[in-house]
Amino acid sequence: MRINAGPPRAVTLDGADLFDPHFHSEGDPHAVWAYMREHAPLHRQTLPDGRAFWSVTRHVDACRVLGDHREFTSARGSLLAQLGTADAATGRMLVATDPPRHTQLRRPLNRLFSGPALHAAENRIRRAVRTVLAPAAREGRWDLARRAGLLPMAVASALMDLPEEDGERLLHWTGMAAAPEDPAYRVAGAGTTLAVAHHQLFAYFAELVARRRGTTGEDAIRLLLTMRADDGPLSDEEAVVNCYSLLLGANATTPHAVAGTVLALMEHPEQYAAAREDRSLVPGLVEEGLRWTSPASSFLRYAVVDAELSGGVVRPGDAVAVWVGSANRDERVFTDPYRFDIRRTGNRHIAFGFGPHYCLGAAVGRLTLRLFFEEAVDTVEEFRSAGPPRHLVSNFIAGLAELPVRTRP
Ligand code: HEM
What we know:
Blueprint: H1 21-26, H2 29-39, E1 42-46, E2 52-56, H3 59-67, E3 72-73, H4 101-109, H5 115-133, E4 141-143, H6 144-148, H7 150-160, H8 167-178, H9 190-212, H10 220-226, E5 228-229, E6 232-233, H11 236-267, H12 269-277, H13 282-293, E7 298-303, E8 307-309, E9 312-314, E10 319-323, H14 324-327, H15 362-379, E11 382-385, E12 390-391, E13 400-402, E14 404-408
Parallel strand pairs: 2-10
Antiparallel strand pairs: 1-2, 3-7, 4-14, 5-6, 7-10, 8-9, 11-14, 12-13
Helix pairs in contact: 5-7, 5-15, 7-8, 7-11, 8-9, 8-11, 9-11, 10-11, 11-12, 11-13, 11-15, 13-15
This protein binds protoporphyrin IX containing FE.
Protoporphyrin IX containing FE binds near residues 78, 106, 245, 250 and 295.
């Protein structure tokens, strides 16, 4: 995903294919979204095989579609790549379940992200931050995007009490699941890559769940096994799909928020210098980095009733894609949206979503980013580009697969 550092160039919609993962790595979706916000806020795209979806690009419509489950359901899946395919985890996995069942599943899990649990995870995250930034202590070129993957793995491992040595393969499988078209992950066609990733991750968690059932401990897996929804405890299968969801939620997004924000800071060195001067600017830097990068790029919903949005009406059964990165550049909400500004006030970004599915891991995601940038401003004088970044091939995650940097300790 290209991230504009200035107002996007003028385009038309000819040849713009928001479904194509390559368009997000090699094309210029921000320019297309800017055009759509202004001229086609409800835009329909039909694929060669006849499947079709609407795109919403304005902040107000994004919040409406994500926020109102009575009008727009998550139960038919929320990934654009799976357009038109029923989600096998409907009613069992948080992201694919509507309230009231969703509320029952989600309420007990909040404990994992509350004060004491976050506090307990903090040391492990801080250690991971130091590992990620270790190459910065030496002169030379290193890949910040690749190393940033270590961060969410540390978070997820702390949360689920996963063996440290499993981190690398889990990270790879979640990469395959989030960006099956990307050359770093693709093993055959996207569908096969996704199926392999799902098989590996579900088998991994099924074994862990079986081993942990009936044992005691404070981790997320045991919490899933002991919590009760209204109709009783979760089955092993429900626990497995929600372990998958937690791991994917953490791994697919956090590294891209880190790497994309560092790229923005390399393009705006005065902002990094300001944060080094005054550490109290770091929380603002984190929020602006989240708005700027919007790593969770698209979410799908299906209309259940006639619903009027800016630009028209969608009908029951219609698929609607919300483009988060576009909503986060909406000039109706953000002053000078193409300016990266760590002092921005009233930053109402929706990088963590909006409404009932608002990111469960938002607090731990923010903590991870804050710890990373606090450590960075303390120990790294400057990040400099050491080669062109490579953008992830994905219509779901806006991210960087490679970000070569040179750092001055
Ligand atoms: C920068 C980091 C992150 C970003 C940008 C992000 C973004 C998002 C977004 C936009 C959603 C809404 C999905 C929807 O509306 O369908 C979401 C949901 C979710 N996220 Fe995150 N996320 C991040 C980090 C994390 C972490 C660290 C975890 C876990 C440790 C996590 C776990 C989840 C889960 C389980 C959901 C589903 C919540 C539900 O359906 O109720 N996320 N995330």
